[in-house]
Amino acid sequence: MGYEKRWDYPWHSSGEVVTAEKLRLLATAPRDSVLDLLGDLYVAPSGIKRSGVVSGFGVSPTVANMTLHVGRGLGFAYNPVKDVLGQLAIEPVVNEAPQSVVLEAPDGTNPRYDLIVARPAASQGDYQTRSVRLSDGTLTTQSLPQWWDVGCEIRAITGTPGVDPICPEGTLGDIPLAVVYVRPGAPHPIEASDVYDVRWWLRYHQAGPSQYVFSAKCNGTDSLSNINQYVTDPNISVAATISRTGVGSYTAVVQVLASALGTHPNPPWVLDAMAISFAGCVSEYPNGTRLIGYSSGLSSPFAGGALRYVSITMNVYDSSGAPIDISEWISGSFTFFRAD
Q1: CA gap 230, 211 in Å, rounded
Q2: Which of 285, 282, 303, 296 is nearest to 334 (CA)?
Q3: For a disulfide at 153, which of 119, 190, 202, 206, Cβ 3.0-4.6 Å?
Q4: Tens of pLDDT along 58-110?
């Protein structure tokens, strides 16, 4: 993560006078080396270095007007400028206890979007009385810090109200946590449906697709059972469980961060749906029963575009091309390209 001294350690020569700078170097070099290594390991799904969340930092509404709850969490703030200069470019952001953040009062006419972020907030702590020799040689005592404490500041960046508002931007090193739709009028408790999770998850980078995978048992009429769904990437999640939406039609809705879709030509995904078993259908229709999967829509719930909802629909047809309900298992996977 840019730190030129990651694999080095400070050296103290025999007889060398120990200065405050050397003592500080002895204390910080191991920590900085570990942080720099973590910064290279925990990255965005594409392998790109950026600020993000390792765990926690969930944002939820409270019963109090304009007030949100932010849970405990761990993240890393990345500074690309320091990375270029060969300095330690990553800083831990640790929220040891839940915090509350209060949004500004709403506009009287137009809605707006606010961005909730986490920022590094390190501070000196554990002050104790220590002996100090002043520049004139006088020996005295002072209250001095014993630790450099890692902390976290939760901030709400207020957007601009408008008929079609957009999400505000954070500053360098900010870790986005949530976008909040603030309805116009008097101050009010924020609704859960107005809080959009935009945490960018950092993880140990490895090759492989970002997928939504499912399997389910069709009962031949109007429902599914034994539903199993999972995702292989924390940047995507199941927004609506797969269900029967019509004759031979089965739909699931997946939520994905827009930034995880990459810059590939539209559409930025591929769909691979297959049937595990069509034994009953094949015997009834010798020409074969077909299962066709496709995406039926990509939408953004707010103008900032940080979240997208993808509807995935699987349709089953008989040999004549007519939709048909089946009494078999279906299974498939929906693969997103990684961001560039």
Answers
A1: 8
A2: 296
A3: 119
A4: 899 999 999 999 999 999 888 877 777 777 778 889 898 899 999 999 999 99
Report if pTM > 0.85.
no
CA nearest to 142, candidates 129, 154, 153, 152: 129
Taking the C-alpha atoms of residue 237 and residue 305, their distance in angstroms, rounded to an integer, is 16
Give the sign of the dihedral formed by CA 319, CA 325, CA 327, CA 328: positive
Q: What tokens were used for 230?
A: 């999972």
Q: How many Å apart are CA 155 and CA 40, to the nearest integer? A: 26
For the CA atoms of the chain, what is the radius of gyration?
27
Q: How open is the CA angle 130-136-142, to the nearest 5 degrees?
A: 20
* Residue 335 burial (CB count, 10 A): 15
DSSP-based three-state secondary structure for 222: coil
Phi, psi of 71 (to 5 degrees): -80, 175
Sign of CA dihedral 156, 162, 163, 168: negative
- DSSP H or E stretch at residue 24: helix 20-41
Which residues contact residue 177 at a Cβ distance below 8 angstroms, ignoring those fewer than 6 apart? 53, 57, 59, 70, 116, 117, 118, 154, 197, 198, 199
The alpha carbon of residue 179 and the mean position of all alpha carbons in its chain are separated, in whole angstroms, by 12
**Helices assigned H by DSSP within 151-278:** none
Beta bridge partners of 60: 69
What H or E segment, with its residue span, contains residue 23? helix 20-41
